[in-house]
Amino acid sequence: MPDALALPAILDLPPAAARERLEAWVAQRQLPRYRVDQLVRRLWQAPVAAWTNATELPVALRAELDQELPLTRLALDVVEQSADGTRKYLWRLPDGEAIESVLIPSGSRRTLCISSQAGCALKCAFCATGTMGFRRNLSPFEIAGQVREIVLATPDDKPTNVVYMGMGEPLLNWPAVDTSLTVLNDPLGFGIGARHITVSTVGILPGMAAFAQRPEQFRLAISLHAPNDAQRAGIMPIQKKYPLSDVLSAAEAFRRRVTFEYVMIAGVNDADADADLLISYARRLGAFVNILPLHPGGAPGLVPTPVHRIRAFAARLRSAGVEAAVRRSRGLDINAACGQLKVEMERKRRAVRN
Ligand code: SF4
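Above: the input record for the complex with iron/sulfur cluster. Below: its predicted structure, written as C-alpha cells.
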C-alpha cells in the first residue's frame, strides 16, 4: 500500500483520480460503497472546510479522513470589498507566499479572476504583479482552491464564470492549470461550463498548443495590448520570445472564439493607426476585443487613456464591424488590478518594519 503522505494531496487530483483514490480507501476499510459518493461530494460539489464538518459521516470516520486525506486550505489574509461590489481576496499559502483573487459581481453573473502563479516573471509594464518577479508556480489545488474557499465561505457566491487573469501567466504553469481546468469544469468538481472558463495568456506558444488539445470549449483570451512588434516589445518583454505574428497564428489555429485584451495607455497604443491594425487582426480571427482602461496607480510611469479617447477608439473598431466592449474599471477604491493588493500589503509591511 503506498504511503498516503507521499501521494499528492487529494485536492491536487482531477476528480476522476480523486474518486479512484477514495474508492480504494473505502474498499481497504471494507466500508459500504455509498460512502465513496458521500466523500467525493465533499471535495468540490458541497465542500467542507475539514472532514470533521461532514456530519453525514460517523465521527470516527471523519477523524480518520482528517488524518489520512486532509483537505488542504488557502488561508485568507485580507478581503476588501469595493463600493461597486467587487471583492478582492489575498490568500496566504502554507510556505508564506501570497496570491490574489477578485470576485466581480454583475447582475446574475459572478466572475472570479484567479491566480495561477505567485508573482510573475514576465514584467509587463502595466502590471503590478510583474514588479514582484516570479516566486513559484501554484499547485492544482492552490488554483482551484481559490474557487473552493469562496464557496466554503458563502455557497451563494459560487462563481458562474472563472478567468485565469490574476497573478501569473497560466500557460507557463500548464500541468497545474490543465488539472485545475478539469476540477473547475468536471461535474464531479465545480461543474462550471467550459464556455464560462477563460484562460488569458500573453501568447506562450507551447502552452497555447497544449491548451488547444483540450476538447472542451474553454475560452482563450490573448493579452495583445499593442498592435505591432515595436510597440508591444516596449510594454511586454515576452514579445521578443514569442512575436505577435506567431501568437496570432497560434490563436488562429485554436479554432474557437478568441478575445483580445487591450489595455489603453495614453500615447502608447491609443492612436487611430493602432485601432486600424487591431481591426485587421480582429477581422482575421473573428476576435472579440475587450478594451480595458489602465488601472490608475497600477503602473508607474504610464497614464490611462482619457475616457473620450477610449470611446473614440472603441467606436472606430465597431464601425469597422469588430465587436468590442469597453470594460468598466472595477474596484478602483480597493486596488483591484492584478497584483496591486499584494504590492500594497508588502509596502505597508516594509513601512511597519522600518
Ligand atoms: S500582465 Fe500577466 S503576464 Fe504580464 S506581468 Fe502581469 S501577471 Fe505577468
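Notes for the reader.
The domain at 75-350 is CATH 3.20.20.70 (TIM Barrel).
The longest helix spans residues 15-28.
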